[in-house]
Amino acid sequence: MIEKPYLLFLGDAPDQLAAKVAQGINDWRPGHSVGQFRLPGCGADLGIADLSLAEAREAGAKTLVIGVANRGGVFSQAWKTVLLEALEMGFDLASGLHNLLRDDPDLAAAARANGRKLHDVRVPQVQYPIANGRKRAGKRCLAVGTDCSVGKMYTALAMDAEMARRGLKSTFRATGQTGILITGEGVPLDAVVADFMAGAVEWLTPDNDDDHWDMIEGQGSLFHVSYSGVTMALIHGGQPDALILCHEPTRRHMRGLPGYAPPSLEQLRDLVLPIARVANPRAQVVGVSVNTKALSEDEARDYLARVEERMGLPAVDPFRHGAGRLVDALEGI
Amino acid sequence: MIEKPYLLFLGDAPDQLAAKVAQGINDWRPGHSVGQFRLPGCGADLGIADLSLAEAREAGAKTLVIGVANRGGVFSQAWKTVLLEALEMGFDLASGLHNLLRDDPDLAAAARANGRKLHDVRVPQVQYPIANGRKRAGKRCLAVGTDCSVGKMYTALAMDAEMARRGLKSTFRATGQTGILITGEGVPLDAVVADFMAGAVEWLTPDNDDDHWDMIEGQGSLFHVSYSGVTMALIHGGQPDALILCHEPTRRHMRGLPGYAPPSLEQLRDLVLPIARVANPRAQVVGVSVNTKALSEDEARDYLARVEERMGLPAVDPFRHGAGRLVDALEGI
After folding, report:
1. DSSP conformation letters of A265-280
2. Exposure string over A31-65, b if 16+ CB within 10 A, otherwise e
3. Measured between CB atoms, which of B227, B254, B270 is closest to A195?
4. Any chain B CB within 8 A of the CB of A199?
5. Any chain A CB within 8 A of the CB of B187?
6. Does the pLDDT of residue B71 top 90, yes or no?
7. Confidence (pLDDT) at B284
């Protein structure tokens, strides 16, 4: 568990896209951060207070969260000066980068010397159990995609936010680096050892109130040969009651796999249902979430209407039109 | 790669079952071992020469392979005396046990001092790549099960042996501890980090002659919620041309999962085919392998005949009746 509130470190991000992790944290959990910290030349701006480390500490910040990608997988001297100072001032550090905070001898030494924590959220912190398949109380919703990077995390976060707005019980369950930094906890599923993947998902989504929903962040795709095993473990460990199909309609081939055509939404539905029903015979596909970013508003509305007709399911772009109809679809399940 | 030939360490195995790893090695690769080493009170016997460490070294043995389960997950003093002496005499050690050779300080020190290797085959030794899904030359056959422990390894080994008898090109590809000890190499797939599972299987089954078959050892089951992610990665990483369905007809529930009924062979066929065709559009189910150990000879023949009729596929128990008809089914693929 990463201590809040955060100070969001944007470093010398060349542009807004490089700071998309910080953007995600600020968009979904605006109350979690007291401000942003930017180095000279930073091209990103979250539109929140620029604070020095001292000002952020005064405002109560407990963790400096690296919300920006670094270049070449190394910590530059400019970064390190700030990170070391932060540790000395009492901040914990949190990062989802490939190169680990703990592997930097200076940062590791400073953390030890100051009694601070280094959260490398790509690294599992728990010895997860082997899945036992026991049916758990409470309800679970999982977003599954025709491909990787089609909006599964966004969909789960948007549904969770809509549930909260309605006063319904919901918890976003993070399974990837960005999700973990957003909520401050979760399972970095792609870094878990094979035998324990499904058990990690069971651990992440424990017994709960009968009317509580876990909104589980999806990973990979059953149709993506590099990561389909992770998706499978999510479905069987998560034993979802409700499945949301996620799709990006302009994708020409599976991400990173030229020659692999993305499946249709029908193919995804027909494959995921028998798989999900192994773990939960009541599993249903309840809606479709389409990332229509590459379409105009008219094209998007037209596409969604056609999907809705074809599939007989509510089809929305939660970014454009909100997740309300997806949450409606959970009623009565 | 574990150096051959082996001396098979049976230790103080209370009975034959406790030495089933050694039994497997000796059954499938009789030429790999110069003999067995037994401690006083050993209740197992492979029917091969009992050799002292010195005699085995003289006969050329390079590796002492622990072919027996230990009690309570510790190395007893009686074992350690032998293992330390073996390292001093120039043996490498190989083990598939949960407790690792390398984690025992005395064994680790003796291996270092004598320049010997400790092979803990449960631990991946390679930084596997992320799967790229590229179609590889050569052919691949994968056994998939309605459940865990239904004879997938046996089926692949029996088919590999039959291919060899016929002078056809075939390689058994091990994905578990016992299989790795049998062949001396392989991938301990259940210990690989999630993101790299399918890549490990691609690495294990590289490009080969067009008429060469990899007989890939299966793991888990698509219907076993604890391990289905591993099975999925095997199917997508292995991109099999041919699938063999494996089944144990008297199983009442999935192994270790009370309340989970095993699927029918039809359910397995209908689920595995669309999954396999994501990675290899030409994937076919070509046969059924039934573990009929719990049935009489008449019951077995009757059961197999009915499965054959129902499924329209050759159905055999390779242990009882040989793998010939399963190998026949690969012809023309």
Report:
1. HHHHHHHHHHHHHHH-
2. ebbbbbbbbeebebebeeeebebeebbeeebbbbb
3. B227
4. yes
5. no
6. no
7. 98
